[in-house]
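In this section we walk through a basic example: taking a raw amino acid sequence and producing a predicted 3D structure, encoded as discrete structure tokens. The instruction is simple. Fold the sequence below.
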Amino acid sequence: MLAFALSYRQAIDDITGDRAFNLRTYELNEGEWDIVKQLCNVLKILKDATLFFSRATPNLAMVIPAMDHIDAVLATQSIDATLSASIRAAVLMGKKTLNRYYDKTDSSEVYRIAMVLHPRHKLEYFKNAGWDESWIATAKDIVVDEYKRSYADRVEPNVAVPPTPMKKTVRKLTSMSWWPIV
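The resulting token sequence is shown next.
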């Protein structure tokens, strides 16, 4: 909606500025238009994340990297002196809300299990993201414990399984494949 308003700014200014339409109270001044532009730019990361997770193939292993990426963007925006004070304050509130949801991932082991088992992430993601070594060890322990609890007794010892030939898959690019966390 904000992007639409920016695209049609001249028309909006013409309509709200015309006394005949009695819409002068809705007319935006230059400072208000600047805030619209800033808000549009600030909200882009949330729009991109929404579109990314609304596609046909989102997965649990992408939640933490997405939250980390959004958090980094919001952290940068919250101290950006070129943004108005009200926008920076709103960004800080958004960051606090994001962190409340991020904290909830700690109460569910499935996020860490999904990350560790994901072929692209494994434990390297946590190392690259600067996680404390004890947190990384905990993530590894969670996966090992879950394996022992749920799957270890299902493995038949000394049974050789012939390798299965793998088909080459072609990755189809989507409109969101450019997103940094894909």
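Looking at the output, two observations stand out. The helical segments are 2-7, 9-17, 30-54, 63-78, 85-104, 109-117, 124-128, 133-150. The mean pLDDT is 89. In the next section we compare this with other chains.
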